[in-house]
Amino acid sequence: MPAQDYDHPRSSTSTIYHDNLDIDPFQEKHTAFRDDPTIEQGINAYPDDDDGEGYTVESSRTRPRSKSRKILAILVAIIAFAGTIGVLAASGYSVPSFSSKGGTRHITMDHVFNGTFNAYSKQVDWVKEAEDGTFSHINKEGNIVLNTVRNMTTDTLLVNASLVLDLEGNQLRWTGWALSADMQYVLFKTDHLKQWRHSSFGNYWIHRRQDSVTFPVIPPKNPPTIAKCTWSPVGHALAFVSKNDVYIISEDNLSSVSSSSSSSSSSSSSSSSSSSSSSSSSSSSSSSSPPHVRVTTDGSHTIFNGVPDWVYEEEVLESDTALWWSPDGKRIAFLRSDESKVHDFKLQYYNPSDDAFKVHQYQTELDMKYPKPGTPNPTVTVHTFSLSSLSSSSSSASTTTQRLTWPGEFPLPDRIITEIGWVADDALLVKEIDRAAKDGNVVLFQFGDQRGTEVEGEIVRRLGKDGEEGDDGWIDHGQNVIPVKGLVQGYLDIVPNQGYNHIALFTPLNASKPRWITAGEWEVTEISGFDTEKGLVYFTAATPSIDRHIYSIPLPTSASNDDEADQDASMSSMTALTDTTSPGYFEASFSPKAGYYVLGYRGPEVPWQRLIEAGSGDDRADVLLEGNTELNKTISEFLKPLVTRTTIENDGYELNMLEILPPNLDITGRKKYPVLIRVYGGPGSQMVSNRFERDWHSYLAASQRYIIIMLDGRGTGFRGRNLRNPVRDDLGHWEVQDQVAAAREMAKRVYVDRSRIGIWGWSYGGYMTCKAIEADSGIFTLGMAVAPVTDWRYYDSIYTERYMSTPSANKDGYATSAVNNVTSFSGDKVDFIWAHGSGDDNVHYMNSAALLDKLTQEQVRGWRFRMFTDSNHSMDKRMAYREVYEWMNDFLEEKWGKGGTVHH
């Protein structure tokens, strides 16, 4: 989707890559336990920016508990360099006291961009292969160290990991690592080469701990070809994807690499993995690399096995992987995408270097497959491979790969696979929807002894108007399925419950009706952790919608869906792990078995972070990892805007609104203030929340004395489907009406200058800005748009058709949603500027080129446009990002000057 100017990273198994496309200088910063945070072993902790007011941390007067003191002794050695560590004793977590008093210093643009107001957090990498509550870091000596919270032990996993050597004795400059499930091997990634938002390539190396031998997965390439490399959840089998084909290295083959064979030079072998025989059960491209099995043979620039193509990476899986190990490590499931019929889009690049003064006489082109509304999508199929076939030398990979089919599946050109998840060792769940996201199926595959090249599943759940959604809106998708074992067998999912997203238990595996774990007029945003032993589900919920709180709830003890008493008892036992009596925006990173969690407070006050042991014992761990003491002190020195959160009503809808007001606002009407609306507004998004934020808008409010408004209108998220659904097939209409209503509401205030009311946004927010100006409502006198969509026929098919259907089915909707009434952009009506990066692979420059053409043809003048050469959607080339804000800042200064001027 068109991204907001902040991203929400996701986690996956084995290794995790954080390649954010939209980078925000105002994001919360990590202090990592490991040298390079771009790959992590476990779950990350909170890279984002927030809204709110600051406080000052005061030292704790409470005596630490004994366990916490021991944990603290371990942690001090790890993170003392990053700030003050405190431990507080309480039945829950403890919160530092604060002072909201501001100072007298003025915020400048340098303060905004140089990190003055950055909130820091620690990156805690849970190690799922070790005892629960174990996390990793790299110490000053370069050792990879594992720390266990329960017994306060420290174990050196790898001595001097910074000096891991290749076969020729050269140091590996690795950027990430992952531990095998049996802890016998460490996987290292080198030569990281970024591709799209989540995806990258690298060379991978296996280090055997027993004898400290290191060897490549396949001989290293330049440029690297491996797009994904992941350990089995059991033992030390390895799956990897190279040149869009899937390969497996079995445990036996990995163990067969001897010290003597590894002594040969890796560079002496020039054969690649793709040249190995596709039909042999085991082959190796080099004596220094372990033998591997080539599972697929048709990988190409249009056939993707085990990794997503661009549109699936961006809009469906939101990840770099399309390969999933079964829990017992005996099978893999993978997605095969064929985009041979997807149309090409050519991206132009004028200067591949970081130096604008370097001369490149000819531009370069990047061909990418980019499906647009009404054009062919990639066709996708689901396949599995059983590792049991590797024990038979007569069996080939091609005959043991099975394609999954089911009666009533949607035609390949018209279906989207939205989720694939193992719900048991031999049971797989697949979700499909049609390309308009109106109808869908959930299909269960139970393998057992099924043989042959195809496995047939059964549809167990229906999605859409005649299914679980039960309305005319779109089918949301995510990666939410969690398998359940123990007294109750089944899986958890997030499903609409009377219009609100809630946790449902499906038991047994083929159950068609949910057993509700949560219910109410509020929404679950994430299943955060699951304690199988205790039967406890941990989740994050928007209660209220602008907050995020962490809860636990027990699973029903009965497997019967008819036991209402048991179900009611479960719901009544819902327990808050965070303080729900005051505003708060929390995130939690649970250890693999949910015995421990890192609790991140994100606002509205200055963020802090704690490591907490789950449960209610008096001796449980509770360690303050980060209090952002220096940030508290810094904020107290500056003029402080007043942040308020309220609601307004429009057309019978109650809408969340946030105001950032200048310090010492004069409400008498003697002084007048400009109003700038910051908008995003995309379906399911949220701008108004209780997150902490100190950014450009804080500068505008505190130093320029502007009033900043954010409004979440119709179509936005976390308040139920009734608020989201009205924009279906009609993007750019109701959302804009709500922004206009907010502007008119502000214009009624005596201290607002009606001649200075503007709107600005990036991506979908840029689209909203253009549509607001196009509406010619008479309320907006200024607009600024960055990287806007101007016609949904130019954007990608999967995102667009989810909300707009296909152009053939919704011809009028596409026509009215485009920016066409360009006379409204005339300089005698509005002051308007916009910008776009010529290398934007997400919202193509074509959108702005089309708007430029319309303005030229209609002879509309008085606007300004700026192209940022080669920049992508985040304006990341050659100092472009800050320049965008400086340019907009200068424009505001020119057209509006400062606010708070005396009205004559």
From TrEMBL:
From the UniProt record, which GO molecular function terms apply?
A: aminopeptidase activity; dipeptidyl-peptidase activity; serine-type endopeptidase activity
Q: Where is this region: Disordered?
A: 39-62, 255-300
Task: List cellular component terms (GO).
Answer: plasma membrane; vacuolar membrane
Q: Quote the subcellular location field of this record.
A: Vacuole membrane
Q: Which Pfam family, any one of them, does this sequence belong to?
A: DPPIV_N
Tell me the ranges covered by the Peptidase S9 prolyl oligopeptidase catalytic domain, including all copies: 695-897
Name the Gene3D superfamilies for this protein: alpha/beta hydrolase, Dipeptidylpeptidase IV, N-terminal domain
Domain Dipeptidylpeptidase IV N-terminal, chain residue ranges per copy = 180-258, 291-608
Comp. bias regions, Low complexity: 255-289
User: Does this UniProt record's set of keywords contain Transport?
Assistant: no
Topology within the bilayer: Single-pass type II membrane protein
The entry's family comment says: Belongs to the peptidase S9B family.
Name the chain's protein: Dipeptidyl aminopeptidase
Q: Which organism is it from?
A: Cryptococcus neoformans Tu259-1
Lineage, top ranks: Eukaryota, Fungi, Dikarya, Basidiomycota, Agaricomycotina
